[in-house]
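In response to reviewer comment 3 from the previous cycle, which asked for concrete evidence that the modeling workflow produces usable outputs, we include below a single protein chain processed end to end. The sequence was submitted unchanged, and the resulting structure tokens are shown without manual editing.
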Amino acid sequence: MRILDRYILTRFLFNFISSFMILMLIFIFHSIWMFIDELAGKGLDIVIIAKFLFYYMPNLIPIILPLTVVLSSIMTFGTFAENYEFAAMKASGISLKRAMRVLIIFMGFLSIATFFIANNVIPAAEQKSYSLRRNIAKVKPALAITEGVFNNVGAINIKVEDKYGENDRFLKDVIIHKNTPDRANRTVIKAANGELFSSEDSNILQLILTDGHYYEDVKTNKIKDQEKYPHAKAAFETYTMNIDLSNMNDVDFNEVSSLNTFKMMNVNELVVAIDSIDSDTKANVTAFGENMYRRSGILSLAVPLTKAGKPIVKDSTKVLNYETDLLDFLDNYYKRQIIDIALNNNNGNIYSIEGKMADIQRRKKLLNHHIITLNDKFSLAVACIVLFFVGAPLGAIIRKGGMGLPLVIAMVLFLSYHFLGMFAKNFAEDGSIHPIIGSWLSTLVMLPLGIFLTRRATADKGLFEFGNTLESIFGFFKSKRGLFSKR
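The workflow returned the following structure tokens.
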């Protein structure tokens, strides 16, 4: 039996390792194509590019590993069935479950290794990859400008809608906020187009803007002067800015950033972060509610109906109608003022609540991201075992090895698993479903399929019994026809 177990394990490992390497190579080329705009033609050393791809490889494992398990399982057991090796095993009294035993043990160790990779290797690689990209952006400022968001480059925050041309030197729809020591946003520059000029022997980055406007709040020491000169405004055809990069070019590419997002955390850190975010969100909501309660003025409307145990009105149960009882003492001008003030306060409260709702939604989305990431580390490890019990019996049923039909079936199963998980996580991020369900849904859907296929393969049955199904259908129609003929 040891010889048989060794043979089965060897065949599976050969298919597993070869499939994993081929798929990893394919996805690496896909990653190169995805980051080609950021890396190609920027004058970066080939070692830096290779290091970036090396750090990015662990992030591909959650995609590649499930597909590898399904493909290698179908190929291995499909080849055994196609070459009648399973028939020889069954003739010797060896069942499918017994043949799968050594691979079940291997999948258990693989699941443990997968959890270790998801909990330790992927977060570390994500942090190093992020740090390397940020360090590259310091040396190559054009890389630091991401389209559609504000980016800190030197002494300015810049946002562009589009980058194009050689080395992304041409910019479109540029918005610039100048950084000030007191962190006040006093200067805003808007331009239709921009162009970057830099030299390897110079620490000055030249930014030429065309067809734009310049806005600046004038800072004065006296309040009266601020009322006279609140701001300065000018239009320009061409405006040149020189950005000092002397502090940015001295970069150590091996430096690791201290930033720690949810993708860079292990299980213990995620548990602490989830508890902290949840507690902070609840405290923030409670404080906001108490603040809105105080701002509403309800506390000041509490009028005592008794004094020294004696009623101060004839009916102590009377509810005062302030609209009729108090406003009637004022003329129409003051009535309108009071009503306008009340309406303005009410509108201000509505805006505050809407703004706070957006902030709460952002906090909940961040919390959901942490919960999803935490559960993904466990669900990926369990998915390896579940997908093995899907692929192995399916290979024994279809009785086809090689890279033809098994590859097609493996891709269909993997895409079903992958897209179901992706859609579930997208719904879980905004709170449409619970984040734990979003992480485990695809694995839970595959579990009944694995049980069904394992039972079919163990009983030596086909995927579907079309003969019995057709007989049942024909028998149903025959019985109906006999019933109608008697009538």
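The two ends are 65 Å apart (CA to CA). We consider this sufficient to address the reviewer's concern, and the full set will be provided in the supplementary archive.
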